[in-house]
Design a protein that fits this description.
The chain is of the alpha+beta class. The protein has 2 domains: about 140 residues, Fructose-1,6-Bisphosphatase, Chain A, domain 1; about 100 residues, 3-Layer(aba) Sandwich (D-Maltodextrin-Binding Protein, domain 2), CATH 3.40.190. Helix content is about 30%, strand content about 30%. The strands form 4 sheets. It has a 7-stranded mixed sheet, sandwiched between helices. The two termini are about 20 Å apart.
Length: about 260
């Protein structure tokens, strides 16, 4: 289980990273396209460098979207899993739906995390056994009495743009297209939404922090295959995931066809 010191380390690192990004004008950045078509900017790399300097302690591993993975993390019990800027497209376009994402994985479980959205001035930090704080204030755990009817569901802006959420048109819940998956998970953990899911695979760095936050808030997280989500795997790519307030899990498993598996 993550310690209070771990949460303080996450908060401090996110605060420093927020200050770095605050001094960068997206329009001034040189941007290149990575294999697969995703953009990467000097802001991504600057935050990656700062977080790597501040977060890993002796004997701890590191996995980041912007750092070449040498596999050394696989021998570590504690691993920091980071996306320096989740939602770089939104960041560059001036859409305030991007975030700095820091997760701590222990023995394959996401136990603590922090997600900071500098554009909206919101930082969500939490850990299993510690609950969740928004800008330093403790928030209540997620409700176990929620129903899917009338629920606020955050959807991938990219997936909805491709028409992949068309099957949910006319559903009893409200679908709100939103950027960064880390940001969506943080909003859920903070009680600002009731559920979110992604219909396409994600890398561990996209979701480790957010998964830890949802679990810390008492929520449920599982893959589209119905299974729990293990982290720090040799190939850090996860199937689409579902995260929700605990009371919604049975309804969502039925809706999405995800059986309850170990």
């Amino acid at each position: 289980m993550a310690s209070r010191e771990d949460l303080e380390r996450i908060t401090s690192a996110l605060s420093a990273a927020r200050d770095v990004v605050a001094g960068i004008a997206p329009a001034s950045l040189n941007v290149r396209t990575k294999t697969g078509g995703d953009p990467v900017s000097a802001a991504d790399l600057a935050v990656d460098t700062l977080l790597r300097e501040r977060l890993p302690g002796e004997g701890e591993g590191w996995l980041s979207e912007e750092t070449a993975d040498d596999g050394a993390r696989l021998a570590r019990r504690r691993v920091w899993v980071v996306d320096p800027l989740d939602g770089t497209k939104e960041f560059l376009a001036g859409i305030p739906e991007w975030a700095i994402s820091v997760g701590l994985v222990e023995d394959g479980v996401a136990t603590a995390g922090g997600v900071c959205n500098p554009a909206l001035g919101m930082m969500v930090v939490g850990g299993i056994g510690h609950g969740v704080q928004v800008n330093g204030a403790q928030v209540p755990p997620l409700s176990g009495e929620k129903a899917l009817r009338g629920a606020r569901v955050l959807a991938s802006r990219t997936e909805t743009g491709r028409g992949e959420w068309a099957r949910f048109a006319g559903a009893s819940f409200d679908v709100v297209p939103t950027g960064s998956v880390a940001w969506k998970l943080a909003l859920l953990a903070a009680g600002r939404a009731d559920a979110t899911w992604t219909l396409t695979p994600k890398h561990e760095w996209d979701v480790a922090a957010g998964v830890a936050l949802v679990l810390a808030a008492g929520g449920a997280v599982f893959g589209l295959d119905g299974r729990s989500l293990p982290f720090n795997r040799p190939h850090p790519r996860l199937p689409g995931l579902v995260a929700c307030a605990p009371g919604l899990e049975p309804e969502l498993r039925a809706l999405l066809g995800t059986p309850a598996l170990p």
